[in-house]
Amino acid sequence: MLDGEGRVLLARRAVEPFRGLWDIPGGFVNPGESLEDAVRRELREEAGIEVEVGRLVITVPDTYGPAGDATVSAIYECRIVSGVPQPDDDVSELRWFAPAELPPPEELAFDGMRTALAAWRSAG
Questions:
Q1: Among the options 46, 93, 101, 106, which is catalytic?
Q2: Sign of the CA dihedral with 63 first, then 98, 77, and 83 last
Q3: Mean pLDDT score of the chain, rounded to an integer?
Q4: Which DSSP string do the residues of 113-124 spell out, in sequence order?
Q5: Domain locations along the chain
Q6: Second-level CATH architecture of 8-123
Q7: How far out from the chain centre does Cα 48 lie?
Q8: Residues 6+ apart with CB under 8 A from 16
Q9: If pLDDT is split at 50, 70 and 90, which confidence band does 65 have?
Q10: Is residue 93 flagged as an active site residue?
Q11: Which end of the chain is more exposed for a tag (fewer CB within 10 A), N or C?
Q12: Cα 46 versus chain centre, distance
């Protein structure tokens, strides 16, 4: 999740795979669910916030789990409309990062997140 102040909200994973590493809050799209609805649901579940989903910033291919299932991550700019981000569900910590403050690549959970965050940093 990106905000209008030039920061990204990252979540420290509380579950495997990659427990303890940083990730962009999110998850899987349910059958029949739009990407935007999935973003709203996942941010409600993982951060306890309601958001207005804005522009699609980037999509990146990735893999997930021990079998390396193919995934595509869609990163959106969002605006919080209610609540204050607090860890919930499968997240142990939430923190806002400016581009120059991002964790090093080895502390990021997924290759796709490294790609997305590097592109965001270079664009800013």
A1: 93
A2: positive
A3: 92
A4: HHHHHHHHHHH-
A5: 8-123
A6: Alpha-Beta Complex (3.90)
A7: 14
A8: none
A9: confident
A10: yes
A11: C
A12: 10
Residue 25 tokens read as: 């809050």
Where do the DSSP E strands lie in 16-68? 22-23, 50-64
SS3 category, 104? coil
| Best CA proximity match to 25, nearest among 103, 86, 102 | 86
Please count the other Cβ atoms lying within 10 Å of the Cβ belonging to residue 76.
21
pTM: 0.90
- Kindly state the tokens that stand for 68: 């390396």
Among candidates 43, 75, 38, which has minimal Cα distance to 56?
75
pLDDT band at 124 (very low <50, low <70, confident <90, very high): low
Write the single-letter amino acid at 119. Answer: A
Q: Where are the beta strands (DSSP E) in 14-83?
A: 22-23, 50-64, 69-82
**Would the pLDDT of 21 be above 90?**
yes
